[in-house]
Amino acid sequence: MSKRSLRFSSILAITLAAACAVGVSQAAIAAVQSQQPVLPKGVEQVTSVEGFTEYRLPNGLRVLLFPDQSKQTVTVNVTYLVGSRHENYGETGMAHLLEHLMYKGSKNHPNIPQELTEHGTRPNGSTLFDRTNYFETFSSTDVNLDWAIKMEADRMVNSFIAKKDLDTEMTVVRNEYESGENQPALVVFKRIFAAAYDWHNYANLPIGARSDIENVPIPRLQDFYHRYYQPDNAVLLVTGKFDPAKTLQLIADNFGPIPRPTRVLEPIYTIEPAQDGERMVSVKRVGDTQFVGVGYHVPSGSHPDFAVVDILTLILADTPSGRLYKALVETKKASSVDSLDIPLHDPGLMILFAEVRKEQSLDAAREAAIKTIEEMATKAPTQEEVDRARTSLLKNIDLTLNSAERVGLELSEWMAQGDWRLYFLNRDRLKKITPADVQRVAAAYLRPVNRTVGLFIPTDKPERAEIPPPPDVAALVKDYKGSAVVAEGEAFDPSPANIEARTARSDLAGGLKLALLSKKTRGNTVVASLTIRFGDEQSLMNRGTAGELAGSMLMRGTAKHTRQQIQDEFDKLKARVGVIGGPTTAGASIETTRENFPAVLRLVAEILREPSFPAAEFEQLKQEALAGIEESRREPQSVAGIAFSRHMSPYPKSDVRYTSTPEEDIEEVKSTTLDDARKFYADFYGGSTGELAAVGDFDAKEIEKLAAELFGSWKSPRPFTRLATGYQDIPPINQSFETPDKANAVFFAGQRLNVRDDDPDYPALLLGNYMLGGGFLNSRLATRIRQKEGLSYSIGSGFSAGSIDKNGQFIVQAIYAPQNAAKLEAAIKEEIARALKDGFTAEEVAAAKSGYLQSVQVSRAQDAGLARRLVQYRYLNRTLAWDAELEKKIAALTPDEIAAAMRRHIDASKLTIVKAGDFATAAAKPESKPN
Residues 276-301: pLDDT tens digits? Predict the structure, then answer.
């Protein structure tokens, strides 16, 4: 099989974390409160809840500080309370378009992408219905924080928002719009929203209408910016390791001088009337799978009933316990189910989805879905169903509250609904929900007249499903105090030397290698990564699909637990766990807390060592796999990606590294039996070769002893021999594939390189590629193709090199409008040729060094990534000293050394190019341009 996930994952699935904090002592709370900073002149403290403290500046800016000394990073997030809900006629997509232009520079920060890269940040921005936010995570230094606060203050009111930038960025945003048009589920999702609302702006998704994106005049966009991008319409959030007093003064010094605007933001007074009949919408486009979505109007996120909607949604659509899953997937009426219920400022939509294969009846799936959903009003949920959903939601929020970065970004959504404290209030509501509450809410909203799927039906006695208006948020949160503050962790230095000093390595008698890094973390969290390795080239021949399916069956039942019981147990243990396998490896990823880590590890060992391979689950897995293959078989990304991989990595069909076609995949999945999967497991799975790494709050000696108990005696049936993947000189090709009715096209270009990561040229190639196609919007390729010419929303290059074999690769990827194919290809070739001919300036190299070295420091500060790195290094017999040495080499590079290395290895004439898109339609239709 080709390298793709067998599990269908809807692009619309949004994990909504409601919340529950880990309790700490009153002494700990007092200690946090005693650290409250001295307030700068004019700044007032508004409230404090569970470690978050809100302040307000005289100009109206709200400031939220959440210090967490356990991380060596800081996240700065600015949320503007403006989204697609605030757009007028002809302005759809304006908030999102403005989000893009905010990266084009401001008065004192003319090249924001360059600065973001130089400071090694992980930045982004996003636009939704009620808000727009901008954030950057960076290494915790005074210099970085000072820069971030000054940059965000400057672009709040001094961004260029220039016509020349709109001219190029418009086509980038349009390309993003086109990429969404390629996804059938997203198109159906858009149509449901459009049909469900008569007057409210939630009918329009934030991406907007193509014509509005193309034609919006720059004065109108500038007016929108000046109206909403003001301190009294913004919330500044700082989380991570920082000094609260210094940071508050820094904020006051930079945001304080911005005057409070004299304009008044008029309230939005449009209220969507109650729906008065079933509605249906259909979309007919090229594709290979069917979808049915059923939507119902539900209250706003601030309304008490929304927490019940959260529970109700999980009871219906969770996998595998959900009622829809059992009614549709287990009966083979659908291949998978999914759901969406976004907490919004005004009443929103709850949408339930089912993916249906072509050979299945769409009508049968729709009827079964509607019957199952609307039976909730008469078939009350059990206490077990409610408890299971609640446990899952509270687990996710417990873990979110343990991450200063994640919880900070989550609060953007709740700020937009009226107040960030709604996040905690919603969590508290979840704890009190009963089966009777769920049935009441189902009866109130899951009604035929409130449904968007069906037809209009005249009736003499119309019904209404009245949706309550948003409550008075100020009154709701006025005296809210929250729960106890989550315990803090230690200030951990993520330098290679300190990681090495804190990491304990050992080998179990059975062969498994351990790397354990124990430290105090926020909320006593711990993450772990486990990999086991098996097989050899000869024994794995013609068994790739059996290996994929065997690995995907691991979490679907053991000798002691069913699939549902496994999920329930992980929820009770407050654990996020993934266990998966393939043709050559299997493994697990774990995130949990100190007290639950041993029990979680025991259950992971049971999943790996005692899978039961239930026949019913295997048939469901095959249906999911087939639906996933069929869904992507005509998508440009899949078509081009498969063709590119088949050419660049040619292996015989019997080899597990062979890249198969969708048609071959379908045949393989259909012909592979449960016995094939069971036999693959029996022939290969064992713990003789593998690595286990853990990072976080745990007792290293206890975990080492437990690992020996769980995996020490688990012997592999046969020895492991690594599959060698040496350099191949691949002749270049230039291929183009037609994908009809797909508005977005995909471009791949690449070259195999005869290098390994200990090659003297490796550091120079790494930094050279970073300047050519890495960084954040300021690489050579991004600056030319996205920033200057507006040809692509997503453009970049990558470089990799093997650690054992000489197996390197340089690759360029882009998405674009099909009519721009020739321009895009020419621009990419020109930029690569220019880099090879002229090299890079001293200023470019200095900035790239700073940004790259800070970005790797940020990566090491992420515990999950560090655990994966420790696993890989145990396999390679490396320590973090390798990182330290590489960073020294990068810091010492000169422009001439970088240029020389790139010329030795990269040859533009040897690039293989593969494109996929609807080029025939584009050739017959000239590109539209703004007025």
Answer: 889 988 888 888 888 899 999 999 99
